[in-house]
Design a protein that fits this description.
By secondary structure, the protein is α/β, with parallel strands linked by helices. Helix content is 38%, strand content 16%. It has a domain of 204 residues: Alpha/Beta hydrolase fold, catalytic domain (Rossmann fold, 3-Layer(aba) Sandwich), CATH 3.40.50. Strands 1-2-4-3-5-6-7-8 form an eight-stranded mixed beta sheet, with helices on both faces. It is globular.
């Protein structure tokens, strides 16, 4: 891999599940011109991090979802907007990152990424998230709001749900999530399920090019990735969804949130990202003629909205930096 490897060690918190052995490198990440790659250890996870843009630029943390990895942000990484430092980590167990020492509870993953920010020396950042990366992004935003200037989230439900909002669309979860949660390891490693069903089935707007689908799907033949994907859904269905029903999210956010939503999404209904139910002071929703994989389908629009968010929140970040200097 190109770039300089940087490894930072952090004390490992107690977990109920011991950390799995690190896997051998079986393949290289897909090439992206001009990027810097590194491995950074944070909270017991050996993160694979891909960066582009000036090292002293304004940071942007970009989080992918399932069944993908950092390469979903290849267009931003290959041509980062002026002044922005695009940082696209593979989430724990995904892509080329090491396995997590937990069962992929989303609050644990959010804490992992916040620890990664610490290891990278990032106090405040803009945030981009898609799919489960979008879910994790919301958990980060609610847990540590002072660390974020703005959030661009693509095709993910916001966290302020109730039985009234979710029950009409519960069938969408049942269409694939129990299958992945139960048989996910074999499904990812030994079948063409991802290429034929997730990336190639459903409305035309929901699909991506076969060559891109192959790059994503092939990585999940790795046992660590297959296990992380399975745990992502198993933990959600068995622990997080029941907990959300009993204890709905009540925290409100003042962080600017910009939603970019492909309206032909089979997995996530747009009503689950509605501004009417979002407990946010500054929240906008933009409908896009695309499917769930809107970042692959409309990278131009993602780029444009990120630039707009950076421009509109520039004074916010500057004020925060000034406040930090005063405190110091």
């Amino acid at each position: 891999m190109s770039g300089t490897a940087r490894v930072r060690r952090a004390s490992m918190p107690p977990y109920s599940r011991p950390m799995a052995p690190q896997r051998p490198t079986t393949s290289e990440p897909p090439a992206i011109a001009g990027v810097r790659r590194s491995f950074v250890v944070a909270r017991g996870v050996r993160f694979h991090v891909t960066e582009a843009g000036p090292a002293d630029g304004r940071p942007v943390i970009a989080l992918h979802g399932w069944p993908q990895h950092h390469w979903v942000y290849r267009d931003l990484l290959a041509d980062p907007p002026e002044g922005l430092r695009i940082i696209a980590p593979d989430l724990p167990g995904y892509g080329w990152s090491g396995p997590p020492p937990h069962r992929w509870a989303k609050d644990d993953v959010a804490a992992d990424v916040l620890a990664l920010m610490d290891a990278l020396g990032i106090d405040r950042t803009l945030l981009v998230g898609h799919d489960w990366g979008g879910f994790v992004g919301y958990r980060m935003l609610l847990a540590a709001p002072a660390r974020f200037d703005g959030y661009l989230v693509c095709n993910m439900a916001h966290p302020w749900q109730s039985p009234r909002t979710t029950l009409p669309h519960f069938w969408r979860l049942l269409a694939y999530q129990p299958f992945v949660a139960s048989a996910g390891v074999a499904l990812h490693r030994r079948t063409p399920y991802l290429k034929r069903m997730i990336f190639a089935a459903g409305p035309k707007q929901h699909r991506i090019e076969p060559a891109a689908a192959r790059i994503y799907a092939d990585r999940f033949r790795d046992p660590v990735c297959a296990r992380a994907a399975t745990d992502t859904y198993r933990t959600f269905l068995l622990r997080e969804l029941p907990s959300a029903v009993k204890h709905p999210e009540q925290r409100r956010t003042t962080i600017p949130i910009r939603v970019l939503f492909g309206m032909h999404d089979f997995a996530v209904h747009p009503s689950l990202a509605s501004p009417r139910t979002a407990m946010a002071d500054d929240y906008t929703f933009e409908a896009v003629d695309a499917g769930h994989f809107v970042i692959d389908e409309r990278p131009d629009l993602v780029r444009a909205r990120l630039i707009e968010l950076a421009q509109s929140t520039g004074s916010r970040g500057a004020r925060a930096a000034d406040d930090a200097e005063v405190v110091d």
